[in-house]
Each structure stands twice: as structure tokens, then as C-alpha cells.
Design brief:
Chain lengths: 325, 293
């Protein structure tokens, strides 16, 4: 969308001067939030967690072109794994377990998904999400707490030093920044390009030497890891994990984040996660109106701007660059 | 399991299976003509239920008349949704359209909850839900028979509509190739609007048959819609007979398995979906969609 004159431009992590400004301001803002506006620390932490899931989903849906209505399942797996492991091992070790577990499960889900496309894939993945939710809710309650779920104490994870909310906020920030950096790198690597090639023209990608099956399952695995780590950070933030919070509606919300933000870009996922978190936060006060207004936002975005907020931002930028023509 | 119990479960399976089959038919009909999954189908059906309830229980309109009014309202709403929103949306790829229907579903569910409330209501049925007939020692619920028979009648009516009527022929033409159909002078928009309306009628009829047996609230269609999607995928998204087969199959298997392990009733449908898709990626009766790369 933006004209690039040299290959080096394409390789840069942050593409332009505006990009740097946005990047530095965003980091500064995220660092200062708990100090300046402690009341906003929780929604901002939630935004960071959601943006991880949105980035992961965007890698699958936006980059590789495979739809998923089951990401609440991976999110739940991450959350429950942390909840179960919290009393036993340290947080970094538990996070590592989540990464490995979600990568394996994502890979396994990706294998049958190879044969499916479009509506079949949407239904099958939504089935995966529902099955995970049912599994956690209906296994004996001494396994995963049944319908009432499990409690997660931050002090179990980090000892008393990190039990305070502010410290946990910075842990989330650190993990999220690292994974966002990795996502930006992934998008520019040969794997990221292979994802896009598979999305745009599967046959052409195959003839150019892209191993389509491998790339598709890899996209599922990476996407699952992002969603799982999101869930793992989410559990201690909320303090409780229960099956009802990982419904199909959550998967729909994840999907609506990347659609609102902009499909197929890392920044789009972050923007969408931000807007949806703000919407949820504000709409919680609207009571019965929340479903109606949330649906309305999704409808308007889809009808007016299918490229999402990021697409609109790029269009505005291009407009001013070419102004007054 | 005794013989009597087996028969009883079969009847339950056929009853719930005809609900699933009707929902699956509406899913498949829409997918064949517009290549879209409509997640708003549940809300369209809810609109019919709530309208029927309000007319008959609050305003004293005869049940059959309010039933028809409910069906008509959901048909008009579906047609209008297609004509004014789906058709004009800038995101015309399958994923964009799917998300549009998800947005519509959230919007409509919120709106219906505000208008009619989220409390449980009791929609009256044509027969008393607890009344039974006794035939040769078996007691069969009148409601089960009504649901199964009404389901069959609707399926036959849909078959005649699609295969014998002129607009049904036009629908089949549009589902094969919209551009050629347009070039041949078929009013594609009218055909699409009417296929949305017919799909809404099928889904709403399923909901109106289901609702008297359970209480009516804005979340009752979530489960039947999921199962209907599952049934449509099992049968094949492009095959109307497949949808019927998938619906009955799912209903009957669910009745038997649900009797022994009730906790996994919901996951069961999707285990079936995944099993079928692994061996037949386009469903039991579906055909592979050809596309040019």
C-alpha cells in the first residue's frame, strides 16, 4: 500500500517517521499508565492481553487466510494451564509449558484443517472451541473445578513481591512487547511472506516452492501460541478462570477485533484490540444496550470500511502525502 | 437398554432431528445461493418467536395467525437485511460477509433483548406439551409427533418449491452461476432476497416448533443454530438432501449418546463433524466446489 523504493525500506522494523513517533509514544504511555492513572491499569492490561490474541488470530486469518472461530479454546487452554501450574512451578516455566502445549495442540488442530476451507473450517474450529469449553466445564471438578472454575492467586505465581497489581502490569507489558516484536519480525520474514503467498494464491505459492501444508499448520501453531499466552496472562489478571468466559462469543469478539482493526497487519490487530477493549469497558456501563451497540459497530465497520481502522489510517496518510492532488 | 427405551430415544431423536434438519436446510439454502453462512439466522427465528408470543399471549390473536405473522416478519427482516446491508457492504469476500452476519446477530440479539426482555416466557403450542397418545403400550408425546410431521411437511414443501416452482428454478440457476443467470435475464436480486426470506422461514419454523417445549428467551436459538450448522456440514453445505440426512443423523445419535453421557452432548455434534470431515471434506452428500486458482 505504501510505495517502497529500496529493499532496505521493506526490511525495516518500523517503516516510517510516523511509525517511530507512534511507537515511542505508545511505549511511553504504556509505561506511565500505572503511575499516572492507576484506575486505567486494568483495562490497559486487558487491552495488551487481547492484542496478543488478536495478533495471533491475524497471523492465521489475515496472513494465511484460514478462518478460526475457535480461538477462545486456545485462550482457555493457556488460562487453565497457568491456573493448574501456578502452585507448582514458577511463572516463566509455566509460560513455557503453555507455549509448548499450545503449539502442539494448534499443530494438531491444523492437520484436519488442511482439508477444510471457508464455512467448513469456520464450523469445525467453532466446534473445537466449544469442545474445549465443555471439556473444562464437564470433567470432574477436582480436575479443573467444573463449572465454577479455578482461582488464580498472583502471589502463588510470583511470591509476595509481585503480588501487587502494578508489578503484574509490567510483567504483562514485557511479555506482550516481546511477542509483538516477534510478530512484526515474523511478518517480514520468509515465513510471513509464505503465509501471505498461501493466502493470495495457493497454487502459485506451491509452484514457487512453498510447502503449503507445512505453512498452514505452522500458522495454526503460531496463532495458537499467541492465543494461549494471551490466556495465560489473562488468568492471573482476572484472578479466576471459569468455563463460561471462554464461549463462542469470545471467539467472535477476537475475530471482530481483527476485522475492526484491520485484517492482515500486525498493527491492525493491536488497534482492533484497543478499540474493542474500550468499547467493552464503556458498554459495560450501558447495561442492556451493550450487545446492540457492539453489533452496530461491527456492522458499520464491515459496511463502510472493510480494511478496518488501519486501512483507514493508511488511506488518510496517503491522502495527505499526495495533498493537494 | 430395553426395546421400549430404544424406541423412546428414537422418537426423541427424530423430533430434535427434524428441528436440526430444518435449521440445516435454511443454512444450506442460503449457502447455495449466496455463498454465505448466516449467523443471524438464530435472531431472525427469535424475532418470529417473540412476535408470535406477543400477538397470541398479550393481544389475543389466534395462534395460527400469529404463527404466520411471525414467519412473515422474519422473512421480511431477512430480505431487508440482505437487500440493504449484505448487498451493499464493501467487504464482499466470504469472510467479510460472515463477520457482517455475526455483527447482525449481536446487534439483533441486543435489540430483541431490550424490546422483549431476557426473562423466560412460555410460547403456547398447537398441542399441550405434556399430553401423550398411547399406542400398543407405548406412550408418545403429541408434541413429538407434531414436530416430526410438521418438519416433514416443510421439507416436502421446500422440495416442491425448489424443484417445481419457477423461482426455485431461478434459485438453482443463481446458485450455479450468478453472472450467467443475470445475463439470461433472471432477476438475481429478487431471487437472492427470496432465498433469504425462505431460509428465514425455515429457521423460524424450527424455532416456533421448538419453543413451546422449552421456555422462550433470547438465548434459546444458540444451541439449535450450532447444531444446525453442524448438521449442514455433516450432510454437505451444497446439498439439500444432505442437510436433512445430517439433521436426523445428528438428532438420533445425540439422543442415544446423550442418554448415557449427557455431559458431552454439545461436544458430540462437533466430534461427528470432525470425523465426517476427515473422511469426506465436503460432507456426506456434498460435492467438491470447483474453483479456478
Amino acid at each position: 500500500m505504501i510505495l517502497k523504493e529500496h529493499y532496505e525500506q521493506d526490511l525495516r522494523l518500523v517503516a516510517s517517521r510516523q511509525g517511530w513517533i507512534v511507537f515511542v509514544l505508545l511505549i511511553a504511555w504504556l509505561l506511565l499508565i500505572p503511575q499516572l492513572f492507576p484506575a486505567y491499569a486494568y483495562p490497559v492490561a486487558l487491552f495488551m492481553v487481547y492484542s496478543l490474541v488478536a495478533i495471533g488470530l491475524n497471523i492465521l486469518v489475515g496472513f494465511t487466510g484460514q478462518i478460526s472461530l475457535g480461538h477462545a479454546g486456545f485462550f482457555a487452554i493457556g488460562a487453565y494451564t497457568i491456573a493448574k501450574l501456578a502452585p507448582i512451578i514458577t511463572f516463566p516455566a509455566a509460560l513455557l509449558v503453555v507455549v509448548v502445549l499450545c503449539a502442539v495442540i494448534g499443530y494438531l488442530v491444523g492437520i484436519p484443517a488442511l482439508k477444510l476451507e471457508g464455512p467448513y473450517l469456520a464450523i469445525a474450529t467453532s466446534g473445537f472451541g466449544l469442545a474445549v469449553q465443555q471439556f473444562f466445564g464437564n470433567t470432574p471438578s477436582d480436575w479443573f473445578g467444573g463449572q465454577s472454575g479455578l482461582n488464580v492467586e498472583k502471589s502463588q505465581l510470583f511470591g509476595d513481591l509481585f503480588a501487587r497489581d502494578r508489578a503484574y502490569y509490567y510483567i504483562i507489558l514485557g511479555v506482550v512487547l516481546l511477542m509483538v516484536y516477534m510478530a512484526f519480525n515474523l511478518a517480514r520474514s520468509h515465513i510471513g511472506r509464505a503465509f501471505v503467498a498461501v493466502r493470495d494464491a495457493e497454487l502459485a505459492a506451491q509452484t514457487s516452492g512453498v510447502n503449503v501444508a507445512q505453512i498452514k499448520t505452522l500458522a495454526f501453531a503460531i496463532s495458537a501460541v499467541y492465543a494461549g499466552v494471551g490466556g495465560a496472562l489473562f488468568a492471573p489478571l482476572l484472578g479466576i478462570v471459569s468455563p463460561e468466559s471462554f464461549s463462542l462469543l469470545l471467539s467472535v469478539q477476537f475475530l471482530s477485533m481483527i476485522v475492526i482493526g484491520g485484517i492482515g497487519t500486525v498493527a491492525g490487530g493491536i488497534l482492533g484490540a484497543g478499540l474493542v477493549t474500550v468499547l467493552q469497558d464503556q458498554l459495560a456501563q450501558a447495561g442492556g444496550w451493550s450487545g446492540l451497540l457492539y453489533g452496530l459497530v461491527v456492522l458499520v465497520v464491515m459496511i463502510v470500511e472493510p480494511l478496518g481502522l488501519y486501512g483507514r489510517w493508511v488511506k488518510i496518510k496517503l491522502y495527505w502525502k499526495a495533498w493537494p492532488f | 437398554m430395553t426395546f421400549e427405551q430404544a424406541i423412546r430415544l428414537l422418537i426423541i431423536g427424530v423430533e430434535i432431528g427434524s428441528i436440526y434438519a430444518l435449521v440445516a436446510l435454511s443454512v444450506v439454502l442460503l449457502y447455495r445461493t449466496s455463498r454465505v453462512l448466516n449467523f443471524g439466522q438464530g435472531e431472525l427465528a427469535l424475532l418470529a418467536c417473540f412476535l408470535t408470543f406477543t400477538l397470541t399471549s398479550r393481544m389475543g390473536v389466534p395462534l395460527w395467525l400469529s404463527f404466520l405473522a411471525g414467519l412473515a416478519a422474519s422473512a421480511v427482516a431477512a430480505g431487508a437485511f440482505y437487500f440493504f446491508l449484505m448487498r451493499r457492504a464493501k467487504a464482499q469476500d466470504p469472510m467479510g460477509l460472515l463477520i457482517l452476519t455475526l455483527g447482525f446477530s449481536l446487534f439483533a440479539n441486543g435489540g430483541l433483548s431490550l424490546l422483549f426482555g431476557v426473562d423466560n416466557k412460555q410460547l403456547p403450542g398447537f398441542v399441550d406439551v405434556i399430553e401423550t397418545w398411547t399406542i400398543g403400550g407405548f406412550s408418545i408425546s403429541k408434541n413429538s409427533v407434531l414436530v416430526a410431521v410438521a418438519g416433514l411437511i416443510l421439507m416436502v414443501a421446500l422440495y416442491l418449491f425448489v424443484q417445481k416452482s419457477k423461482i426455485g428454478l431461478a434459485m438453482r440457476a443463481v446458485s450455479q452461476n450468478p453472472e450467467v443467470a443475470k445475463a439470461l435475464g433472471i432477476p438475481v436480486n429478487l431471487v437472492l432476497v427470496s432465498s433469504w426470506a425462505v431460509a428465514a422461514i425455515l429457521g423460524s419454523a424450527a424455532a416456533l416448533l421448538l419453543a413451546p417445549a422449552i421456555s422462550l428467551n433470547p438465548s434459546i436459538m444458540l444451541d439449535p443454530l450450532n447444531k444446525g450448522f453442524a448438521a449442514a456440514v455433516v450432510g454437505g453445505m451444497t446439498s439439500l438432501p444432505g442437510a436433512v440426512l445430517g439433521g436426523y443423523l445428528l438428532g438420533i445419535i445425540e439422543a442415544y449418546v446423550g442418554n448415557f453421557v449427557p455431559a458431552f452432548k454439545l461436544a458430540l455434534a462437533f466430534i461427528l463433524v470432525i470425523l465426517v470431515l476427515v473422511f469426506r471434506p465436503h460432507g456426506l452428500l456434498g460435492e467438491k466446489e470447483t474453483r479456478r486458482a
